[in-house]
Amino acid sequence: MMRMMFTGPGERNELGRATMLGVNFAVGMATFSFLGYWIDSKRGEGSIFFTLLGVMLGLGYGAYETWIVIRDLNAKAKKATEGRKDTAPAPENRRDRLD
Fold it and tell me: So what's the pLDDT on residue 38?
């Protein structure tokens, strides 16, 4: 539905991503749930099948959006660590060397 990428430095960037994720999840849930409710009301049988289907689709959409954001964050973190050259050994190795 809405996909915006925030590219500012620092905490504002992280807050923007979290806000984007929450808004996408809420909008997807509301949209699919409303569509299901609307279909159920047009059928007039008093069933809630399409409403429940809309809720499930909304949850699926929210999970998909969450997966996209996490995948992009992991790719950015991996790219940032590949460009950095750490010369210090891992904490486990330093402890072994002290013994």
Answer: 94
DSSP 63: H
77, 40 contact by CB (below 8 A): no
Q: pLDDT-based confidence at 31, cuts 50/70/90?
A: very high
Average pLDDT of the segment spanning 75-91? 71
What percentage of residues in the chain have a pLDDT greater than 70?
72
Half-sphere exposure of 23 (CA within 13 A, CB side): 10
Taking each continuous run of H as one helix and of E as one strand, the counts in the chain are: 3, 0
**Does residue 36 contact residue 60 with C-beta atoms inside 8 Å?**
no
Q: Show the tokens assigned to 57.
A: 């689709």
61, 35, 37, 66 alpha-carbon torsion, rounded to 10° = 10
Residue 7 CA, distance from chain mean position: 16
Return the domain boundaries, the chain.
24-75
